[in-house]
Amino acid sequence: MADSHQRSPIARMNPFGRRISGRAVKIAAPLALVATLAPVGIGVVAGGGGVAPASADLGGAFSAASGPAPSRAPQVSRSVPRVAWTKDELARQATARAVRNAHVRLWTTDDLTLWSLPGDQAEKLGTVKAATSVLVTGRERFGRVEILRDRQPRWVKEGNLSATKPIVAAGGLSMAPCAATGGSDLGLTRDATYTLRSLCAAFPQISTYGGRDGHGEHVDGSSIDAMIDPSNTTLGYAVVDFLLAHASELNLNDIIYRQRIWQPGVGWKPMSDRGSITANHYDHVHVRTN
């Protein structure tokens, strides 16, 4: 009988042509199994039971025999750039909103300086004439209010805007307060006030005026009496001539002097005797506005 320890004629060869003993085969087989299972185990741990992320992450565990490594999902940056708004930017945004929302129109009551800002660092940017219609934004600060000129924000001194169009004195007329009345407008209407102030500026020698009271055309505040010495007809007719020259601008309804009445489109007409110097308008020029 052949020796049981005799080597088999069919020798096991390793890849290099050398014989491998049975013990070597027994040891090599478990090592091969471990080598095979290692990448699979890593894939389970790394992927929570799924496929391993990529061969590079696993130290080259994927071989050519197991196929190409799965492609890596594109990384998405979680850092979104944040805009840090500065005070200047916030101010520009607030101004832009104010410009867009401006819809109220007011009238300038005087010639006004236009400023770039409400504060002390503001720059002068021109002027706007009195009786100009302007859009206002509603913003007020440091004694100035914001208006729009050519759709650009500008600031003007507060207290000089009105909902009604002011009267702007034409050549030879005035809207300066009347010194003879201590600056009072005597309860007069808008046009009558314009007439009073213009008479005051043109005839500083007249010291007494009558305004709103409880009789005749004075009840509604539309009429003025310029008191003049009855003997000073030169002054009286000078006042009449001044009023006639500006009748359209002052929006006059009638003039009464020395028992005669003038009306637009009619001219002069005599009046009946009312019984006294004052009632017949010898000591004053009476003027009524519309």
Automatic annotation (TrEMBL):
This is ARB-07466-like C-terminal domain-containing protein. The lineage of its organism: Bacteria, Bacillati, Actinomycetota, Actinomycetes, Propionibacteriales. InterPro entries: ARB_07466-like_C. Residues 190-282 form the ARB-07466-like C-terminal domain.
